[in-house]
Amino acid sequence: MDLRDKVVLVTGAGRRVGRTIAGSFAARGAISAIHYRSSQREAQEVVGEIVSKGGRARSFHADLEKVSEIEAMVSEVLATLGHIDVLVNSASVFTRKPLEEVTERDWDVNLNTNLKAPFFLAKFAGLQMRKLGAGKIVNIGDWAGIRPYNNYLPYTVSKTGLIGLTRALAKALAPEVQVNCVALGPVLAPDEYRSEDIAKMVAGTLTKKMGSPEDVARAVLFFCEGTDFATGATLLVDGGRLIA
Ligand SMILES: NC(=O)c1ccc[n+]([C@@H]2O[C@H](COP(=O)([O-])OP(=O)(O)OC[C@H]3O[C@@H](n4cnc5c(N)ncnc54)[C@H](OP(=O)(O)O)[C@@H]3O)[C@@H](O)[C@H]2O)c1
To answer: Which residues are annotated as catalytic?
Structure first.
């Protein structure tokens, strides 16, 4: 897909990995729809940065735990920007909890945000892509969706589900829309991680280094502009963490 003048909705795009993904689409001439929940100031900064470089962007708010807000946001993007050609599901929660402390609410937050929201975003945006005759959806997963981390049980299961959702949506939205997943290894440590935690993450990879948000953005772009023939695929961008 030629990304020029295409509308790209990136969730969780005010900060960190989602922000870099949104910027990389803007650099290709796409119109960025920057989704945020609490990072309003950061989302406005992203819009400002893109516009200052001659690009086009708008920010949109939704709490992705609420399907009604997802539906309202997709309608707002369509009303404002006319269409959605690409959806990147990057927003996620990632909370450490030993098994003994996992609650029903932990399950709900992880599944609602990391699995149910990508489904409803894909449903509302994907049905409209179908009408357009073309579209791309990229889900941002985790190598731990294949081999689970300890102490992140609802999170890892949500990311296992996301790989299954990618395949199921690829079938449901074929042939017009291609749906793929980029499963990450360590690219950006959570803000609260200490240097010892980061050293451990690096040691766990085959590449002996962290990836970067730019590595992720390039993989997402590959699925959107590099090929129309991949669908239902999960690409590991994990520094070899899965097989280490
Ligand atoms: N960072 C890594 O090394 C790494 C490794 C493996 C996989 N991944 C995956 O890569 C993706 C991006 O990673 P990241 O580290 O940039 O993510 P992150 O910082 O943990 O979260 C990204 C954004 O998700 C949004 N979010 C969380 N709950 C939400 C809700 N209920 N409604 C709406 N938005 C919500 C937040 O937006 P607001 O700030 O606006 O509230 C947050 O800024 C995620 O899917 C993650 O699982 C990342």
So the answer is: 155
